[in-house]
Amino acid sequence: MPFRSSPSVRVQAGVLFTVAFAWLFSALPSSTAPATIAKPDQKTLVVLVQAEDCKVCAQVRPLIDELEREYKGKVDFVRLDVTNSKTTKASRKTARQLGVGLFLSFYEDSFPAVGVFGVPRKKCLKELFGINTKDTYKTAIENALASSGTCSK
């Protein structure tokens, strides 16, 4: 004899499916960033995935700070902090809003990592891992400002 469920069981299963479906898609990188971020005239974005207690990250931060001053008004910079669960959760939210959630999820456990995103921001033009020279970061930013394309390592 086949199993017959009551209407309340079917409703509960439907609610559970809807909640699970909504959670799954909220956890994925957003394909549509909020209107305030997804403007056609948005800037190139440099993303630093880092942790406060990471000694290598501490060597990369001053380079990124210098570049941020040099490219003020031309390029947006964001730091995604993965030091602990609270900062990681906030960084995931920020990354999703900026359309770089997949980049963060890839480098969340391997840092420091720098991603240079063109316009639209969802296009990663360059990924840099570990310590690099200021000129290496600068070249990646200049290339992003000059063109768009696919992500390279």
Describe the structure.
Mean pLDDT is 78; it is low at 13-41. 46% of the residues lie in helices and 16% in strands. The protein has a four-stranded mixed beta sheet, sandwiched between helices. Helix 3 runs antiparallel to helix 4. The chain is globular. It contains five helices and four strands. It starts with 6 loop residues before the first helix and ends in a 7-residue tail after the last helix. It is of the alpha+beta class.
SSE layout:
Elements: H1 7-27, E1 44-50, H2 55-70, E2 75-81, H3 85-98, H4 101-107, E3 113-117, E4 124-129, H5 134-146
Parallel strand pairs: 1-2
Antiparallel strand pairs: 1-3, 3-4
Notable traits:
single chain; 153 residues; alpha+beta; 4-stranded mixed beta sheet; 5 helices; 16% strand; globular
